[in-house]
């Protein structure tokens, strides 16, 4: 009898926890830049894009935003639909390829012929700032036998609207802008 009572209590606790984390109460948003048209020459050729390095608050599943007091906050009910590092890496590789015609693939490199270049992106800041912009800043590195490229970037995209959907849209535009900068090697 005691074992049955304990089992019922455990089932009740599991049900209560499940109700608190109900999928219907969690909002998931994508980093998903709009498809880009080819708009520049291919200066990269083939390249492997290493996983993008993000600050901890940007790498977390919850969507981070800055409040007027400067604090970086999150809401556990509003999360990214995919791991942010993976999502940004895949979006960048796709966007660079689309705008330039280059063959940029996120690591690991799946093809038998090795890539001509390696691209690494280190993000210092990727945040919905208190000034109603998404700030994306850091450095990117493109290495090749013929020479290396090292550039800083600092992108500000206005957040059009409010809430996590508007943040996700602005962040997607910022990633697309970064892809164009990397594709131009400028």
Structural class: alpha/beta
Instruction: Please write the CATH class name.
Output: Alpha Beta
Element-by-element helix/strand order: HEEHEEEHEEEEH
* Separation, N- and C-terminal Cα atoms: 73 Å
CATH homologous superfamily identity: ABC-type transport auxiliary lipoprotein component
Provide mean pLDDT, rounded: 88
* CATH architectural type: 3-Layer(aba) Sandwich
Share of β-strand residues: 25-35%
Keywords: Signal
Protein name: ABC-type transport auxiliary lipoprotein component domain-containing protein
Domain ABC-type transport auxiliary lipoprotein component: 29-183
InterPro entries: ABC_trans_aux (IPR005586)
How would you characterize this protein structure?
Residues 29-183 form the ABC-type transport auxiliary lipoprotein component domain. This is ABC-type transport auxiliary lipoprotein component domain-containing protein. Residues 1-23 form the signal peptide. Keywords: Signal. With 186 residues, this protein is α/β, with parallel strands linked by helices. It has a single domain, classed as Rossmann fold (3-Layer(aba) Sandwich). It has four helices and nine strands, in the order αββαβββαββββα. The protein has helices spanning 2-20, 56-59, 84-100, 164-183, and strands spanning 27-29, 46-49, 65-66, 72-73, 78-80, 103-106, 117-128, 133-144, 149-158. Residues 1-21 have low confidence and may be disordered.
List the helices and strands and how they pair.
Layout: H1 2-20, E1 27-29, E2 46-49, H2 56-59, E3 65-66, E4 72-73, E5 78-80, H3 84-100, E6 103-106, E7 117-128, E8 133-144, E9 149-158, H4 164-183
Parallel strand pairs: 1-5, 2-6, 2-7
Antiparallel strand pairs: 3-4, 7-8, 8-9
Helix pairs in contact: 3-4
